[in-house]
Amino acid sequence: MEAALIGSFISAMATVLGAAPIFFIRKLSEKWKDILIAFTAGIMVSASTFGLMPQAIEESGILALTIGIALGIFILDMIEKNIPHVDAWEGSRMSSFDSKSLLVIIALFIHNIPEGLSTGFSYASEDAGLGPLVAISIGAQNMPEGLILAVFLINSKVSKLKSLIIVTLTGLMEAVAAAAGYGLASYVENLIGVGLAFAAGAMMFIVYKELIPESHGHGFERSSTYSFIGGLLAMVYITYWFG
Predict the structure, then answer these.
(1) Per-residue pLDDT reduced to its tens digit, 211-224
(2) Do 79 and 111 meet the contact criterion of CB atoms below 8 Å apart?
(3) Whole-prediction pTM
(4) How many other CB atoms sit within 10 Å of the CB of residue 10?
(5) pLDDT of 93 higher than 70
(6) Nearest alpha-carbon partner for 164 in 53, 4, 17
(7) CA–CA dist 52, 44 (Å, integer)
(8) pLDDT, tens digit, 9 for 90 and up, residues 157-180
(9) Which one of 76, 121, 125, 240 has the fewest beta carbons within 10 angstroms of its own beta carbon?
(10) How many whole angstroms from its chain centre is CA 75?
(11) Which among 209, 226, 2, 50 is positioned nearest to 114, based on CA atoms?
(12) Could you give the CA distance from residue 7 to residue 168 in angstroms, rounded to a whole number?
C-alpha cells in the first residue's frame, strides 16, 4: 500500500508540476499544446498495450481482459455523456470565469477518479514494475492537463496562486482514487486482472475520444503524429530499461 500511495501521489502531483510554468507564461500556443497532448497519448497507448493488457491476461485470463476493457470504456463513456462539461482543452481558449469554467473543474475532478483507480489496480498486481509504469504514463498525461487547466483559470481571471491550488486539488483526487483501487484489488478476489483491463480500457478511451482528436484538429497533424510516436517509443524504452 505504501508504494501505491507514493506512486499515485507522485503521479497526481505531476499535474502541479505541469502547471508550474504559469508563473512565467500566460498563453500556450496551439501547436505546442497539440504536441504535448499527442506525446501523452502515445505514452498511454504504449502503457495500455504493452503493460496493462498482457498483465491482465496473465493475472486473470482473456475473459477478464474483455470484461475489464468493456467496463473501462463504458464507465468513461457514461461520465462523458451524463456529466455536462467543457473539455479543459476547449476551456483553455475561454476568457471569463463562469458556470462553464466551474464545470471544467468539476469534470476534471471526476475524470481523475478512473485514472487514480488505474494506478491503484496496477500497484496491486503481482508484476512489481507495472505500478510505476502506469504511474509514469498517467503522470505524463497529467502534466499538459495541469498546464492547460492553469492557463485556462488564469485567463478566467483567477490568480496564479488560486489556480495552482485548484490544480493541486484535482490531482489529489487521483491519489485518493488510487488508494481505493489498491484496496479493492487487494481484498476482492480475482479483481486485479479485471482492474488492470479496466485501466487499459479507460486510458484507451481517453486517448481516442479526447487526446488524438484534440491534437489533430488545429492544422498541426504532422507534428502531433511524430510526437505521438515519440511518446509511444519513450514508454517502450522505459519499460525495456526499468520494467
Answers:
(1) 898 888 888 999 99
(2) yes
(3) 0.75
(4) 16
(5) no
(6) 17
(7) 10
(8) 778 888 888 888 888 888 888 888
(9) 240
(10) 15
(11) 209
(12) 16
What residues contact residue 8 under an 8 Å CB cut-off, 6+ apart?
116, 119, 120, 123, 135, 174, 175, 178, 179
- How high is the pLDDT of residue 25? 67
Contact by Cβ (8 Å): 120, 185: yes
Are 148 and 28 in contact by the 8 Å Cβ rule? The answer is yes
Cell of 164: 495552482
Sign of the alpha-carbon dihedral angle for 175, 109, 158, 141: positive
For residues 103 and 85, is the Cβ–Cβ distance under 8 A? yes
Q: Which three cell numbers stand for residue 26?
A: 500566460
Residue pair 121/185 in contact (Cβ under 8 Å)? The answer is: yes
> Rounded to an integer, what is the distance from CA 179 to the centroid of its chain?
16
Is residue 66 pLDDT above 80, yes or no?
yes
Strands (E), 165-220: none
Question: Three cell numbers at 227?
Answer: 510526437
Amino acid at site 73: I
Three cell numbers written together for 37: 497532448
Which residue type does 133 have?
L
- Number of CB atoms found within 10 A of residue 43's CB: 27
- 116 close to 8: Cβ distance less than 8 angstroms: yes
CB 174 within 8 A of CB 115: yes
Judging by beta carbons within 10 Å of its beta carbon (0-12, 13-18, 19+), is residue 71 exposed, middle or buried?
middle
Q: Which grid cell is 70? A: 468493456
3-state secondary structure 47-59: HHHHHHHHHHHHH
Cα radius of gyration (the chain): 17
